[in-house]
Amino acid sequence: MLRAIEETVEYIKRKTENFKPEIGIILGTGLGGLVKEIEIEHQLMYSNIPNFPISTLEFHSGKLIFGTLNGKKIIAMQGRLHYYEGYSMQQITFPVRVMKGLGIENLIVSNAAGSLNPEFKKGDLMIIDDHINLQPDNPLRGLIESELGPRFPDMSQPYKRDIITKALEIAKSVDIKCHKGVYVAVSGPNLETKAEYKYLRLIGADAVGMSTVPEVIVANHAGLPVFAISVLTDEGFPEDLQPFDLDEILAAAAKAEPKMTEILTRLISEL
């Protein structure tokens, strides 16, 4: 893996004139609007980058964006990768390794998720302060290159508390409702049954999704501070469960996305 990371990093440096990002951003389903705020200097399609997996979802652009946002040099993934697409956990998280190799000092992750907490409604934002991993594999399994990080990384604070505090203060200052909670990652691609929603709530989750946790594990392994935020696009309340509708999910993400962008653009200037 180390050789592949180095090869990809060198390719990107050549194509971006040695662009040096400070912050990495992973944009989730329906949440690509933040790109409009970036002063773009370079763009690379995933399909043109050596060793880079390609997003198979038609609503994910599959581009790496390089530019400036609120005075910070950033690299943004417009379109993430999921375990349910058939990739291995190490493939899903390969972009995080590459961003680390390019020099990022903080990682911001966004996603669209389903609410499990009756107090968290569709269209709300939730800052992730902890997670539960129910995905069937781990991106660190079998990894032996000590250059990438320790064999047994600590996960007592997977999401940086001081960044969470800043984000909550920003949300309050601009009058945006923003919760804090626990995200549970499942493999997908099917949605959950009523019994599964009950179980996930019982074990302490406030929101459920099919991403984020693998990238967060690898970022922690690599020593990167992480901030993650969910746009709650549907409600997994067993007593009133509605059939899944992808168009409604994407519409809910698009409607809530400006609130997330407002928080992130302000937060980035303070990192």
Automatic annotation (TrEMBL):
EC identifiers of the protein: 2.4.2.1
PROSITE patterns assigned: PNP_MTAP_2
Native source species: Pedobacter terrae
Keyword Membrane: no
Enzyme type, top EC level: transferase
GO cellular component terms, semicolon-separated: cytoplasm
UniProt KW keywords: Glycosyltransferase, Transferase
Lineage start: Bacteria, Pseudomonadati, Bacteroidota, Sphingobacteriia, Sphingobacteriales
The protein, known as: Purine nucleoside phosphorylase
